[in-house]
Every structure is written in C-alpha cells, then in structure tokens.
Amino acid sequence: MTDTKPTVVILHDGTYPLAMLGINDIAHVRYATEDELPQALPGADVLFVWHFLSEAVAEAWPAATDLRWIHVASAGVDRLLFDELRHSGVVVTNSRGIFDRPMAEYVLATVLAFAKDLHTSIRLQDGKHWQHRETERIEGTAALVVGTGPIGRAIAAQLSAAGMSVSGAGRLARADDPDFGDVHASDDLHGVLGTFDYVILAAPLTEQTRGLIDATALARFKPTARLINVGRGSLVVQEDLVEALTAGRIAGAALDVFDIEPLPETSPLWDMSNVLISPHMSGDTIGWTEDLITLFTTNLRRYLHGNDPANVVDKQRGYVSGSEST
Length: 326
Prior knowledge:
The chain is α/β, with parallel strands linked by helices and 326 residues long. The protein has two domains: 7-98 and 286-320, NAD(P)-binding Rossmann-like Domain (Rossmann fold, 3-Layer(aba) Sandwich), CATH 3.40.50; 100-277, NAD(P)-binding Rossmann-like Domain (Rossmann fold, 3-Layer(aba) Sandwich). Helix content is 26%, strand content 18%. It is built from ten helices and 15 strands. The protein has helices spanning 37-40, 56-60, 83-86, 100-115, 118-126, 150-161, 189-192, 215-218, 238-247, 288-304; strands at residues 7-11, 28-32, 46-49, 69-72, 91-93, 142-146, 165-170, 174-177, 181-185, 198-201, 226-229, 252-255, 275-277, 313-314, 319-320. An eight-stranded mixed beta sheet has the order 8-9-7-6-10-11-12-13, covered by helices on one side. A five-stranded parallel beta sheet has the order 2-1-3-4-5, with no helix packed on it. Strand 4, helix 3 and strand 5 form a beta-alpha-beta unit. The radius of gyration is 21 Å and the shape is elongated. The relative contact order is 0.14. Belongs to the D-isomer specific 2-hydroxyacid dehydrogenase family. Residues 31-313 form the D-isomer specific 2-hydroxyacid dehydrogenase catalytic domain. One of its GO terms (molecular function) is oxidoreductase activity, acting on the CH-OH group of donors, NAD or NADP as acceptor. This is Phosphoglycerate dehydrogenase-like enzyme. InterPro entries: D-isomer_2_OHA_DH_cat_dom, D-isomer_DH_CS, D-isomer_DH_NAD-bd, NAD(P)-bd_dom_sf.
C-alpha cells in the first residue's frame, strides 16, 4: 500500500503540549528545535512553526527542498517572512481567529484599568494606604483602533459595547464600516490622532507600519490620551514613547509587545507609574495551545484532501488577503 501521509516538521522551543502528538495520526512528524531544523527539513512537505518567535526558518531555508506549506502558530508572520520565502511557491498560513476575542478583552481591561485607576489602587494596597480618588468614565470616550483585521474588529466590538465611540485606521479610508463606522487611511493618521482618548495598535508589522508611532505621531496625541499596543513592539519607536511619557505629552501606555522581549530590566518603562506592562500574553487564555493545534490539524486535513488551507497569507503584504489590517 502506498504511504500517502505527508511529512510534517514541527519547529518548537524545546517543549510542546501533549496534544501535539495527535498530529502523528495523520502525518509523519519530525520534531525539531532551531538547531535541528536544517536536518529535519529535507523531504518535508509541511512546516508547523510552533515556536512562532523563531527566525530560524530563513537560515534553514536551503534545506527545505520539498516544502509546500508553512503554518505559523500566531497571527503575525513578520518574524517568518524573508525574501526567498516571499518569492517562492510555498504557501504560508497563520492562526487567525484564535486570538481575536481574548485580545479584545485585554484591550477593554486596560482601558478600564486606566479609567478606574486600578493600577494605582494596587500600588496603594501594597502599602496599606487608603487614598480616595475620583476616576473617569469610559462611556462617550473616543478610541481609534489602528488595524482593521479580525483582531481590530473584535476590539471595536468590545469597546463599542462598553459605550465608547470607536473608529478605525486602515490601508484605505471608508465610511459606514459595519464595525468602525469611519475608517481613516493610515496615510492620514497624524491628522486624526488628536481627536482620540485611546489609540489601540492591532496592526501587523510591515514595512509600512514599522515605527508608525514615533515622536511626530506622539506629538499629535491629546495629553490625556493613552496608547495601547497589542500588535508588535516595532509599531512604536520605544525611545520616542519613553520621552513622550516622561514629558507628559501623553497620559499613559499599556504595552503587551516590545522591540526586545523579554523587556530588559534596564528599560525605564518598568518604573513608570502610568505604564502597564504585560509579557506578550494578551491573546493567551486557558486552552489557547490546544486551540492552535486544532486549527493546524483541521488545516492539515484540508491539505490531505487536496483543498486549499484556510488563512492563506499574502506574502507581499504580510497578512491574510481579504482581512485588511492597515
């Protein structure tokens, strides 16, 4: 009998969930760390990049002699894409859909934390200090979500349900969007930043979005505005953000992603009372790893039946076609 099982390489960081073993039922599986990847790739049909922070695929690329499809266990693919892959016939898919609602809930939580000054309450509680304060309402405040893909839309739904006025910023301007109402063109971003109380970054990292929020952009913010970044660290010029926060040109920032991760202990962001820091976890809720594996396994079954996989990434733009992000 002819063996029709594909060979799948799983790039991991030394550990992976037991649920991963279920892939063995439908494929020949090779598990590889970054160092082992060049030896594992020859003859493989599929690469599952479980270690989505890795950049090892580019170095191992010459060994990918038979590769037809790469799936990434993340929504962003900026760490994966390189010129040889972009110009190859290898299909790239991502894990769109897994993180939308959890990340939206994280954004709403940080908005509420700022408005209700919860971070200050925690600090005061640590010192057993009773200090009455007045807080803010979020109803009627204005939020701009930069990135109008599925994650951005989920964020818009959560903030709108909480009574906020939400607009979007995307690659193309348009009116009457079902989730955002008005969508501003990214090229016009500087002209509208000053009208929002919260600016939320949920865009993919591309050449067009790298350094999107720099000193010039931050100078356009309201001094009472907060920046929330759940996209990629490099969407923001971190040194410019530190300067703006120190000078009081913006009121605060909630940051889940950074240029360098983990954030170095020497970063001044750690010591700023108006900054909320989380370690790249806004989409990671209980059960998320199993969801990622289920998504890949479902896609692998489609592949086995000769169907196109879901969540195909436009390798030139850097995100899934049909879900405009910026």
